[in-house]
Design goal:
Number of helices: 7
Structural class: mainly beta
Radius of gyration: 27 Å
Distance between the termini: 59 Å
Shape: globular
Oligomer: single chain
Length: 773
């Protein structure tokens, strides 16, 4: 394996050097960039910009900037248009290897512009992202399926938590961990919210606040090739994109109140710090206070997230941002069920749906600190260097966690444990080189990168014990912390440091303007240090990715196929005869094919795909107690997504995921052929809204639904979480300087539980008021 590692590293280095060398040869192309402003001097975001009679077209960014890269040397007419207003045009000449800067002013004020943008569903439909492929690759060029959930949609839905937000993506089911964190299930596998701006993050014990989220990207399928095993699962990756500073001075303050004593205050303030707008600052804050729908329980949180952009020169830009997120709340009870209990699902339990067995003072207190820094340098017209640093610290001061062990539908043993202090620190340093070049008539989009990761942590607590056994049909008092503390015996366990060095490369080869192939490869060397009497170990994993795309209709419809790889590092196992069994990383391999569309002037985007994910080297224990690495699991199914804005003011988001995830080979032969846990077969999401365009301009309403099929909690398929459907609706009025919204959740008052058996809120109402400055 060391030989493979050395050989692969040399190969990737040679490729990088070769492509860098090729890039110095001049191409007869130039670049156009500029800024669009309004008549009152403000940045004009979201307006259409084209070069007439060509294929070139784009939309201005939040700060009004735009650019066209690799434009053939010639003379063009640049046109800037906004529905209902006068079109602006100017002649531009593109010279070989030069940049032409064009600044235009629309004959419309910033206030009028916002009135137009308010009703535009363009941002909800857009799938533009540089994070999914770690390069600027269009959706139709990308052989991977992904969904983008924009903050505009979350505003429309009055979304105040990440769990409701992620369920706007097809096949995605949110879960809350008993440890206090949040995760998702899709394509038959669970994962945390593990990526932030493309870098590693953590949410296992501290969750996530939406106050600093610009959009949520959900990548489908094993994505170890570009993101590594610590960020991706075999189902895919969830990436949060945070809010960035822009050149316009603006601020928003929002207050949301609602059922169960919800009080939430958020603020978003953005401003340039100097006259030439080369230093930009933005800060987002959120204060959240709420009670549980249960008779005991609460969730209080505080978010502070500043960010800074410094444009040091035309070629060099620095971005720095941070988040401090403090949470004091109660964890939901983790229910388990004795095999002899006769219970098959939570509906069998005789406890009142709104009843808690534990008091508020069994709480948890956590803090997460996240720092992200990026230096982006334009080496030449076609080559860019991006240097990134990220640090994530997740600290648990204390975490009282409650458990109920059910021996019958009426009898439960109450247990409580304490975890903490615990800290987990994740540090990543990454360097990416992106470029474009040609070999004859064949065009390349190339990425090569390296990543160094260091993990360190400490662990205390873990003590659980039974306090009593109760009949839930008779009166009982909630357990207080004082009774818990009297019986706790806390321990401290050493945690091994982990170091990972990774190198990766990806080449998107355009043989024609319709046919492209993606070739990607990642090499990871994972090293875990010795801790206590447990020996350390080192593993090397090689993860390839192949993709093929053909555009049936240029810039509108493409068919694609991919082979993708994900992996998990595995610790050596001591066998019953005292021998050491050195395990290989567990690999998941996906084959997928489908079709994507961006039609009707990008008023509709959609995709349909079929996938097959196979794990054929999972670990299992045989009848003699020895570990073997020949377990097998197959997860297959298809995803459908439709996002459309057919007429002004109307938007439709619909998704369907079908999954059949089965255990093919296991240590227990009796479960072979069974459904894997946490794998609902059918998942449906739908949301549609309409905003009036004329007399009642700004007034709108939305309605949506989510259906989650039943999913098994145990591998023997005897205990399951029932299927459920929730209906939601909203009414809002959006003005240029203020916004009001009303949201109705779980309108039909459905009783339902997530994968961990956590009951969910009955019908509830939210009301929000936003003031814009």
């Amino acid at each position: 394996m060391n030989y493979v590692s050395l050989k692969t590293s040399r190969f990737l280095f040679t490729l990088s050097f070769l492509f860098s060398f090729l890039s110095v040869f001049a191409q007869n192309h130039g670049k156009i960039k500029g800024t669009i402003t309004t008549s009152d001097g403000e940045a004009a975001a979201g307006v259409n910009i084209i070069l007439k009679n060509t294929k070139y077209g784009t939309v201005s960014n939040d700060d009004g900037t735009f650019d066209f890269n690799k434009v053939r040397a010639n003379s063009y007419t640049l046109q800037v248009s906004l529905a209902g207003y006068e079109t602006a045009e100017t002649e531009v000449t593109v010279l070989e290897n030069e940049t032409n800067t064009v600044n235009l002013q629309l004959k419309v004020s910033n206030k009028e512009l916002k009135e137009v943008i308010i009703s535009s569903p363009k941002s909800i439909v857009s799938k533009k992202t540089d994070y999914v492929a770690r390069m600027p690759l269009k959706n139709l060029e990308n052989p991977q399926v992904y969904s983008v959930i924009h903050k505009e949609l979350l505003t429309e839905q009055v979304a105040v938590d990440i769990r409701s937000a992620v369920q706007n993506a097809p096949g995605v089911v949110s879960i809350s961990y008993p440890s206090g964190g949040v995760g998702v299930i899709f394509r038959g596998f669970s994962t945390g919210v593990n990526a932030r701006n493309g870098m590693e993050t953590a949410s296992g014990r501290s969750s996530v606040d939406l106050g600093n989220v610009e959009r949520i990207e959900v990548l489908k399928g094993p994505s170890g090739t570009l993101f590594g095993s610590t960020v991706s699962s075999f189902g895919g990756v969830v990436n949060l994109v945070t809010k960035k500073p822009h050149e316009t001075t603006a601020a928003e303050v929002s207050y949301t109140t609602g059922s169960y004593n919800l009080n939430r205050l958020t603020a978003d303030v953005n401003t340039p710090l100097n006259k030439d707008k080369s230093v930009l600052f933005r800060v987002n804050m959120a204060v959240n206070r709420e009670k549980s729908f249960l008779d005991y329980g609460f969730n209080n949180a505080l978010l502070f997230a500043p960010s800074l952009t410094y444009k040091a020169s035309e070629k060099l830009t620095f971005n720095i941002d941070a988040e401090v997120y403090n949470v004091n709340n109660t964890r939901r009870t983790y229910n388990t069920y004795a095999a002899t209990s006769g219970i098959t699902n939570p509906n069998d339990l005789k406890i009142d749906y709104r009843k808690s067995m534990f008091h508020d003072d069994n709480d948890a207190k956590t803090k997460s600190t996240k720092v992200f820094a990026q230096a982006e340098y334009e080496i030449s017209e076609n080559w860019k260097s991006t240097t990134l640093f990220s640090f994530v610290g997740e600290d648990v001061e204390r975490s009282y966690q409650s458990y109920a062990v059910w021996s019958s539908p009426t009898q439960a043993a109450r247990r409580v444990g304490l975890w903490g202090p615990i800290f987990n620190n994740y540090t990543n340093i990454q360097e990416n080189l992106n470029g474009k070049f040609s070999t004859g008539s064949i065009k390349h989009k190339f990425l090569t990168g390296i990543n160094y990761r260091l993990y360190s942590g400490s662990f205390s607590g873990g003590s659980t014990f039974t306090l009593d056994n109760i009949d839930v049909t008779a009166p009982f008092a909630p357990i207080r912390r004082k009774a818990v503390d009297a019986g706790l015996v806390l321990t401290t366990s050493p945690v091994a440091d982990q170091k990972t060095f990774s190198v990766y490369a990806s080449d998107v080869i355009n043989f024609t303007d319709r046919l492209s192939v993606m070739l990607s490869l990642r090499l990871d060397n994972f090293d875990r240090e010795k801790v206590g009497t447990t020996e350390g170990y080192s593993q090397t994993a090689l993860a390839p990715k192949l993709g093929l795309v053909y555009e049936l209709v240029k810039d509108q419809v493409s068919v694609f196929g991919n082979y993708m790889n994900g992996f998990q590092n595995m610790q050596p196992v001591t066998q019953p005869d005292a021998s050491l069994f050195v395990l290989d990383p567990i690999y998941a391999v996906q084959y997928e094919g489908g079709i994507k569309a961006e039609a009707f002037n990008k008023k509709l985007t959609g995709s349909v795909s079929y996938y097959n994910i196979t794990i054929d080297n999972a670990t299992r224990v045989n009848a003699s107690g020895f570990t073997e690495q020949d377990g097998k699991q197959v997860s297959k199914g298809f995803d459908f997504e439709l996002v459309a804005a057919p007429i002004n003011g109307l938007s439709i988001i619909a998704g369907y995921g079908y999954n059949d995830n089965r255990i093919v080979k296991a240590s227990d032969a009796s479960i072979e052929g069974n459904k894997a846990t946490s794998s609902p077969e059918n998942v449906v999401n739908f949301w549609s809204s309409y905003t009036f365009q004329n007399k009642l301009k700004g007034l709108g309403f939305g309605i949506g639904a989510n259906y989650i099929d039943k999913n098994f909690f145990t591998a023997d398929n005897t205990f399951y979480m029932p299927s459920y459907t929730t209906l939601n609706g909203s009414v809002y009025y959006d003005h240029t300087s203020w916004r009001v919204g009303l949201k109705f959740n779980n309108i039909t008052n459905e009783k339902y539980w997530d994968f961990w058996g956590t009951s969910q809120a009955p019908t509830n109402i939210l009301a929000s008021l936003t003031i814009k400055f």
